[in-house]
Amino acid sequence: MNTALLHEAGHFADFGMDTISLAGSLETKLHAMRAAGFGQVMLAARDIVGHPGGIDAAVAAVKASGLRVTGFQVLRDFEGLSGHLHGYKVEIAKQMIGMAQAVGAQVLLACSSTSQHASGDSEHLARDLRKLAMLALPHGIRVAFEALSWGRHLNEVHQAWEVVEQANMPNLGVGIDSYHILATNTSLKALDWIDPAKIYLVQLADFMWQETRTPQERIETARHFRVFPGEGVHSQAITALVSKLDQMGYRGDYSFEVFNDDYTQLPLPFVAQRARASAVWLAEGVLRRGTPLAGQMRLRQRA
Fold first, then answer.
1. What is the pLDDT of residues 18-44, one digit of tens each?
2. Least crowded by CB within 10 Å, which of 13, 18, 90, 179?
3. Distance spanning both ends of the chain, measured CA to CA
């Protein structure tokens, strides 16, 4: 079967969309993703706790969609705290882990702290991430730790990796977000030290201008003005990133994390089709994978 027919008959098994890119109910978002050919979805806690039918109804909707859950997000400001603040965050983490398990997510995304109360001591950070991973381990959940480009102490991917490596837990790895790498202009050489087996999630997005000079600019762009890969001005950099990860041996999931105020005002099929075009560009134009290959970014036939 040729590639075009595979597109029509199959779905993108290793690509997913983030629900944040779409307007509407959880059910309509899931339907739009599935109709556009995606095989998985990245869920946020608000998708579950904000469902009008309650958590059980949200979980049922996810399972009925047929979409695999890429991961569950996002645990913020966990590491580096002390006393009652640390205890508070531990309780939040337990709830997040429980919800991740309920929807069938095998990955919980945690972002580097932005809290002014957080320590920057590497031993403290590693100890906290070790505790988080231990909480998740009995539930079969892996923790992907991501460096926010406006993080207080950790804001680049290699810094996140150093703490993950120091924590030394079997279910603790890193999450890589192209937006944050672009925003900090991080060299791809920073990935050379990372074990590809410890990359648990890759999130992809672009934006329309070349630089974000201040942390506030990074935050505003990240939360309102991202676009799908291939739509912004950093296509070459995203191509280089995805190619680099592929060469390293990464064969995990790619999720489009596109926060865009315009897209949440547009019809769901329109936005989902733009995401589909991005997936086609990456699969064929960047990774040049037009046929189903086990464990790779494949286009799989529906049963």
1. 999 999 999 999 999 999 999 999 999
2. 90
3. 15
